[in-house]
Specification:
Blueprint lengths: L1 H35 L3 E3 L6 E3 H6 L15 H8 L6 E2 L18 H12 L5 E8 L2 E8 L10 H17 L3 E7 L8 H19 L4 E9 L1 H4 L10 E2 L10 H8 L10 H6 L5 E2 L2 H14 L7 H16 L1
Parallel strand pairs: 5-6, 6-7, 7-8, 8-9
Antiparallel strand pairs: 1-2, 3-4, 4-5
């Protein structure tokens, strides 16, 4: 009889601890849910909690450690472009499924799910606008849409934007973030590398400015083409930039790579990028670079002065 009472007491004690553990996990889930609701943001690097409103005011850069959280294309446009100056380009272009590709699901179904979930047609937004009053053509890639992969629509939108900029004599800025070419479109996605590069060459022949901004991550076919063709190449701090993945390179070389391999800081040290610019300073930096590369307009006074100088030199 005593043994039965002891076993019931032991069982109830186990139940009590189990209930405590369950209630503790419930409260933890409740706390995590409250954080996820958007009031607070926990930094993935330093684990500091920041009021989301303050984080957005600092352009999604952690005020404690300077970690650059990933931002979507709409937010990036708001950060860079002057208010009420943005004019989107080629919003009607939609991706198709020319290869009828299927992996775990149909490519056409994957596209439709992404479009409904994110509200974007494809992985890039392009348009015309102003930065501190200076006209600009801007393309912004969005990593949320299939890892920012470059398909036919991404290539076509960027090419058309560059051609518009060349015609209007605008500088071009492309904010890059991508996992590379989109495998579901096969060779068609790889062709976009050459198409965009050709448009950039015509832009360069017109003596116009192109600045790519490399954000985390910029890899694959994007890195192998337009991301590295800029007159001035900028990068965000700690951004991962490369072509092949770290694991693939280590397996090929059979060597352990340095910790900072394929970071913006490593590429700056080796001359692959020209400067690392924090996001909070990016708009003003771009505006200064664009202003410095504006074509010099010759005024009548300058023409008269040059004529007089030439005349006096000839007389001597």
């Amino acid at each position: 009889m005593a043994n039965n009472e002891e076993s019931r007491g032991l069982k109830s004690l186990f139940d009590w601890f189990a209930n405590r553990r369950k209630s503790g996990s419930t409260s933890l889930e409740r706390q995590e849910r409250e954080i996820a609701d958007g009031l607070w943001h926990k930094c993935s690097k330093c684990s500091v909690l920041t009021y989301t409103k303050d984080l957005k005011a600092n352009q999604m850069v952690c005020v404690e450690c300077g970690h650059h959280n990933r931002v979507d294309s709409d937010e990036r446009i708001r950060q860079l472009i002057d208010h009420n100056t943005w004019k989107p380009l080629d919003e009607h272009l939609r991706p198709t499924d020319p290869l009828e590709f299927r992996d775990r699901k149909l490519y056409s179904d994957r596209l439709r799910e992404m479009q409904e979930k994110i509200g974007l047609i494809d992985a890039v937004n392009t348009g015309l606008g102003q930065i501190n009053g200076l006209p600009i053509a801007l393309g912004v890639m969005d990593f949320r849409f299939m890892g920012g992969s470059m398909g036919s629509v991404v290539g076509e939108k960027l090419t058309r934007m560059i051609e518009q900029a060349t015609q209007r004599r605008y500088p071009v800025v492309i904010v890059c973030t991508s996992g590379g070419a989109r495998m579901q479109e096969g060779m068609l996605s790889l062709m976009q590398m050459a198409k965009i590069s050709a448009a950039l060459q015509r832009h360069k022949d017109a003596r116009l400015l192109y600045i790519p901004v490399l954000t985390n991550p910029t890899t694959g076919g994007v890195t192998a083409s337009f991301a590295m063709l800029g007159d001035i190449i900028l990068a965000e701090p700690k951004a991962t930039i490369g072509f092949a993945g770290r694991r693939v390179i280590e397996q090929t070389l059979r060597e352990k790579l340095p910790e900072n391999f394929q970071t913006a800081e490593d590429l700056l040290q080796h001359g692959f990028v020209d400067d690392i610019v924090p996001r909070t300073q990016l708009k003003n930096t771009l505006a200064q670079l664009i202003a410095l590369h504006q074509p010099v307009l010759t005024t009548p006074h300058m023409v008269l002065w040059e004529t007089m100088s030439l005349t006096s030199t000839a007389a001597e």
